[in-house]
Amino acid sequence: MEVEVRRVGQHEFVATNDRGASVRVGRKDQPGSFSPVELLLAAAAGCAAVTAETLITRTTDGPIVARASDVRPPGAHQLDAVPVVLDFDASGVDEERLAVIRRAVEQLCTVTRTLKQGADAPLQLPMPFQTASEPE
């Protein structure tokens, strides 16, 4: 799996996947786009919702809404936490089912598990241009 992000204008990028889906990416004040941090939040919330969907819809057909928040000190360039809130009609759901939903998200949601683990994100840059006649 790979996602490509290509520049389409000043501070404007488009991320695409191999299934043809795309999303606009830009700075936090760029109209009509998600900032990279917002995409991270969307990934965490989306992962929780997708992971829990089948378990939730077995007991309720209402809406499922997941929200993730950006928790960091003002001006910081690293998030301290990404809390996710999963909201749905739990009126017909017993505590055991809620525990199963929580366990499923905690054990199967790749995004939040990766955030908790603190996975490496190595950056590879192009090699500088080298000529065949460089001195030895």
Fold blueprint:
Elements: E1 3-9, E2 12-17, E3 22-26, H1 36-57, E4 65-68, E5 84-87, H2 95-108, H3 110-117
Helix pairs in contact: 1-2
Description:
The chain is α+β, with helices and mostly antiparallel strands and 136 residues long. It has a domain at 35-117: 2-Layer Sandwich (GMP Synthetase, Chain A, domain 3), CATH 3.30.300. The protein contains 3 helices and 5 strands. The strands form 2 sheets. A 3-stranded antiparallel sheet has the order 1-2-3, with no helix packed on it. α1 packs across α2 (95-108). The longest helix has 22 residues, at 36-57. The protein is elongated. The protein starts with a strand and ends in a 19-residue tail after the last helix. This is OsmC family peroxiredoxin. It comes from Lentzea tibetensis. InterPro entries: KH_dom-like_a/b (IPR015946), OsmC/Ohr_fam (IPR003718), OsmC/Ohrsf (IPR036102).
Mean pLDDT: 92
Which strand order does the major sheet show? 1-2-3
- Biggest sheet architecture: 3 strands, antiparallel
Helix content: 25-40%
Give the N-to-C terminal Cα separation: 41 Å
Structural class: alpha+beta
Taken from the alpha-carbon principal axes, the silhouette is elongated
Radius of gyration: 20 Å
Level-2 CATH architecture of the domain at 35-117: 2-Layer Sandwich
**Secondary structure: number of strands:** 5
Strand content: 15-25%
* Unreliable segments of 5+ consecutive residues: none
**The first-level CATH class name of the domain at 35-117:** Alpha Beta
How many individual helices? 3
At CATH level 3, the topology of the domain at 35-117 is GMP Synthetase, Chain A, domain 3
Taken in chain order, the helices and strands follow as EEEHEEHH
Protein name: OsmC family peroxiredoxin
Pfam family, one: OsmC
InterPro entries: KH_dom-like_a/b, OsmC/Ohr_fam, OsmC/Ohrsf
Organism: Lentzea tibetensis
